[in-house]
Amino acid sequence: MTNSNANAISAAASLCTISASDMPQSLANHLYENGAFMVFLNVPQTTEFGIDYKSWHVGPKFLGLKMIPPGVHFIFFSVKTAPRIGFFYRFKEKEILLRKWDPIREDMIIEPCSADEIERICSNLKSMDDGLAPYPFETYRNWFSLSNHITEKTVERLRPENQYSRITSQAELVTLETEMMEKEGVHGHPSSCVDRDHPTRIRFVDEEGLPIMKIREGFQIRFTELPLHSVAVSTNAENPLDRSWQLHKILVDLSGEWSEFLGEMQFAFVCFLMGQVYEGFEQWKRLIHLLCSCTKELTESRELYMALIPVLHFQLRECPKDFFVDIVSRDNFLTTTLTRLFGNINGPLDLFVDKADELVKINIYTTFMDDPKIISNLYF
């Protein structure tokens, strides 16, 4: 597959604002012949299954998806009231991704398939057509606007290191005691076992006597480590609150690829919005707070901040009016972050001469127009 072919398919898909059943037959045929497939076998009825911006409850004939545009997508599912499970995957042109359902574990599995089985599925795609749901092209633009900076490199850098990079809305927690037992059980005597040579059992508890819990190894999303508030000393003597040094270090670690930084910001937002992972929201807030706490880097990373504006615009469109309000203090997260950003933009730097920032300003105004702290910092 060439990049030009994949880009052409994605471009054709991006033009769609209607479902596959309503689009011209010639376009539907093109997307069918060149798009990707996901074959998902043995999924129980009523299971919630979704891709990107849309989900369904599957029926008895469900066998997977067809006509998937090449690129990164987020696939998710849940059974009854179970936590949502999802994963990012970069589909290639004409690729067939095969997954099966394990009724015992109630989970998707990657089961080794013989060459004959794969060939049989490939040759039977036409006969399976009634059970393959078309990709929801009517929402593709929405998905693209929320994920255009997420690349295969982003996914590989951030994904959890488990079987199929699964991301769960309910963290897979274990006690610190269990974690040590699992590690020591492989190489030595488990610290939690009691016998003649080890008469006591090690337990780890917090100040209130509760077990110390940790996310099971391999299930953490590998976000860039970043505190919500920096405790280190700024290198900017004129502005001690400037965190440009911290942003600069991250960009250096990303080989100067500012789009990768925005890719992580979008990755975190999608994890929260579609994956229902609260840690995604926390990481998104940390990244926003960092970007809004920089002054020196505004001039040195102008491309990053120019690209940030539309990213924020489309993300904020997904958020209800009271989304950022702290339930205890009633303070709005945007009051202390985005207002600082626009204060820097509207200052002597005067970076955005084409008023690209008006996109997100208008969106903030219509959403938070009754918060004078925010509005006064947008235009005055």
UniProtKB/TrEMBL annotation:
Biological process terms in GO annotation: spliceosomal tri-snRNP complex assembly
InterPro entries registered for this protein in UniProt: AAR2, AAR2_C, AAR2_C_sf, Aar2_N, AAR2_N_sf
Every AAR2 C-terminal domain range: 235-347
Pfam family, one: AAR2
AAR2 N-terminal domain mapped to chain residues: 34-160
Family: Belongs to the AAR2 family.
Protein name, entry field: Protein AAR2 homolog
